[in-house]
Amino acid sequence: MEAFKETLLSSFIVFENQLNGQKKSELHKLRQKAFEAFEKYGFPTRKDEDWKYTNLKPIIKHDYKIFHPKEQKLQLDEARKYFLSETDTYRIVFVDGYYASWLSLTTHHQYDICTFSALINRYPEIADEYVGKLINHGDSFTALNTAFAREGAYIFVPDNKIVDKPIEILHFTTPHALPAFQQPRSLLVLGKNSRATVIERHISLSANPVFTNSATEVFLHTGAILDHYKIQTDHYEASLIDNTVYQLQGYSVLNLTTASLGGKFVRNNPIVKLIESMAEAHLWGLTKIDSSELADHHTSIEHIAPHCQSNELYKGIFGGRSTGIFNGKVYVAPHAQKTNAFQQNNNIVLSDKATVNTKPQLEIFANDVKCSHGCTVGQMDENAMFYLRQRGIAADKARALLLLAFAGEIVDKIQLPELRQYVKRIFNQKNHIDFDFDL
Hints:
By secondary structure, the chain is α/β, with parallel strands linked by helices.
């Protein structure tokens, strides 16, 4: 860990020297403070409560290249395999951490769907207003992201506007890239009574280790609605830490669906702050991993204002030597009366060597609330298997039907038919299901 920390220190000095005119900007002051925070805290260890079940050493042992040449050899024919082909979308595409204009479909008409660098260069006043306002630099990885991030997505939807089609954000890593440590930074701002659908994916085409440290700040103003999909289907040498913070004003609605279906190491840290009355947050998660993969969901929902609602349901299926972690925290402030908050985590373990650690938490400081939480960890339901087998269904198909039924509650939350079918197809492949069945 110390060797990688020294590499980051020397790389930050080089990075600062490349900023030229940006050195005096408010953003660079934020970068400096963030890196100072990282120097102070360093990388978390298993002695830290939030990381007690997650060992970072296998991830950060590689000789990652912090900066690499802008080659961008990914061609449209290869990239389009991963685009939604039947759904008309806007696209913001990055290749090896750089914006790929020839693969993207962006706009500045009615709303801004473009890049983080465009935000910094074209709209510095918006950057000063929003960037860094939600991210907590007491976390080592968000501090690193703020210090190093140069590119990512920027979405701004003005008041009373509905984005006419979904927005895809795709991060590609090519086979030409060395072991890479990438740090995309994104900002999403939805004005009053606006609406948008955002689909976020990380796609590694390289056999080399890839470590993506992503951070996103999302502001939902009064009455805004965001449907946010995070689809994680990366290969075995890919690792991802995703920190996304949402701030919800009154009557706004967040629908977040996360599907973690691949990757050596995946950690999702969604933080939701309901700061005004009548805001709603709905978090749905599905995990299916095998081999020695790890998926860690650390969720935090903060009910700061009264009369708000949150629903949270995460489901996991774990095979091989995989490790699943769920730590969900719901906080209800003293004055957040009339809060409705529900949290549930259900897991199926398919192997004796798979491990699941689950810790749902409620911290309630108000007395007029409806809150519940719970978790389950178990194997396949033998009674259900027996019922299906007695009706002539083969063992493999009976098992598949039960897994599909278990996952279906989450998959059904995906409102885009093509994306729903894509997730279903990957889920079937992970479970060796070779017949079609409507989830």
